[in-house]
Write a structure and sequence with these properties.
133 residues, alpha+beta, 2 domains, ATP Synthase, domain 1, 2 helices, five-stranded antiparallel beta sheet, five-stranded mixed beta sheet
Length: 133
């Protein structure tokens, strides 16, 4: 028995596959889903999504969002999802450094602070996933 995994961003459906297991970056800590998992709705943090299919791990950097699990279906709705082999490690590291520097110059009461902090978290996810390909 397999899970049906679907990853969707505001721009596109990124992936629809059958998977043996899905590991997600929950807002309160990472968690895994296997067939016959109890239904749930979970907030996701920016981080690494891994799915296993046929004994092979597939990695994605994902932004914040939500996951819905029910009837052996995992629906992931996130701000961004990038496959590990599409990430340039050097560019990801530089983007993270630049975004962190910009955030350090801001005050927390700045209207765009939360948006820029989310950008830093997504950049950190891309940089992490790029090192684990």
């Amino acid at each position: 028995m397999a899970l049906s995994l679907e990853i969707v961003t505001p721009e596109q459906r990124v992936l629809t596959v059958e998977a043996d297991e899905v590991r997600l970056p929950g807002a309160d800590g990472g968690f895994g889903v296997r067939p016959l998992h109890t239904p749930l709705l979970a907030a996701l943090a920016a981080g690494e999504l891994i799915y296993l299919s046929g004994g092979v791990e597939h990695r994605y950097a994902v932004g914040e969002g939500f996951a819905e699990v029910s009837d052996d279906r995992v629906r992931v709705l996130v701000e961004e999802a990038v496959r590990a082999d599409e990430i340039d490690p050097a560019k990801a590291a530089q983007d993270l450094k630049d975004l962190q520097a910009k955030l350090l110059e801001m005050k927390q009461d700045d209207p765009s602070y939360a948006l820029d902090r989310a950008r830093v978290q997504r950049a950190a996810a891309r940089a992490l996933v790029a090192t684990r390909r």
